[in-house]
Design a protein that fits this description.
The chain has eight helices and no strands. The chain has 191 residues and is mostly helical.
Length: 191
Amino acid sequence: MSKLVINARSTAHRAAAAAPDVPPAPRWARFAAKVAVLSTVPSGLWRIAFGFGAPVGFSGATAAAFDAHQPGWGTVYCVVLSLLAEALAFLTLGLVRPWGLVVPRWVPLLGGRRVRPLAAVVPALLGSAILTDLGATALFGGWARNLAEADSPHGVAAVVMTLAYLPLVAWGPLLGAVAIDYARRTVRWHR
């Protein structure tokens, strides 16, 4: 058995020992967390390609404004935004993994401490509400309005951009479902 597998198992055992009263996440929640993380990948890859100057279909004044900063600060912005979105989505896994119950030992100052459930649940539910609202707004008119602008991508470029961003609509609801399950498993409700 590889050292990595042994380390992963020992981490899971330490987390279970530190939080013995927390049942494991159900299979559907683990699956939903993985899909939430993957939902940000297509738009991130599209944005990074755009940041490095790939022709993605913008024209006119919009294209000229982008060309002035890509490559350059526009590239940095696109890469950082993509990495930030992926890092935030990655935190969804903490709601179904042992490191969402006990901070990994390698984390300075907090390593080995139990995660306070509300410290994970409140930001996750807030993020879910914001992302769900943004996704619903885009689905029900916002995206179509943006693509109707003269400088926006059209044809195949518009389809590619839409397919890259469409998975983001699932991020908010998936995060919400996983956060509610995490709360159900970890938060003690006093009457």
